[in-house]
Specification:
Helix content: under 10%
Largest sheet: 7 strands, mixed
Number of strands: 11
Distance between the termini: 39 Å
Oligomer: single chain
Shape: globular
Length: 124
């Protein structure tokens, strides 16, 4: 079974930056649509950002546009989420996920493989 392992979460102050990383098998990084979702306590899992198999197309939730950016490093087999200008409302568990190319990138149901999540807490 494909394993996705997130890292990089932590406790930061509002306005700080964090960089999350998702380690995945090489084939997954190269051939799948990769995404980040997040889930805050008592809320549904929500889309954050996704990147196409080729890496040429990215998608971002309106709530993070201009602050977060997704990228992939094929040499290191990782998908990264650079988060700048963090706000308390960004506090959540962040999950990495992989989907077959061509699936709707913003829908959680498109993703067949998920990591265990990494906690991001932003204090005001």
């Amino acid at each position: 079974q494909v394993q996705l392992v997130e890292s990089g979460g932590g406790l930061v102050q509002a306005g700080d930056s964090l960089r999350l990383s998702c380690a995945a098998p090489r084939r997954t990084v190269m051939w799948y649509t990769m995404a980040w979702f997040r889930q805050a306590p008592g809320k549904e899992r929500e889309f954050v950002a996704a990147i196409s198999r080729s890496g040429t197309t990215t998608y971002n939730a309106d709530s993070v546009k201009g602050r977060f950016s997704i990228s992939k490093d094929n040499a290191k087999n990782t998908v990264n989420l650079q988060m700048n200008g963090l706000k308390p409302e960004d506090t959540a568990v962040y999950y990495c996920a992989a989907a077959q190319p061509g699936s709707p990138a913003r829908l959680p149901g498109s993703y067949e493989t998920w990591g265990q999540g990494t906690q991001v807490t932003v204090s005001s």
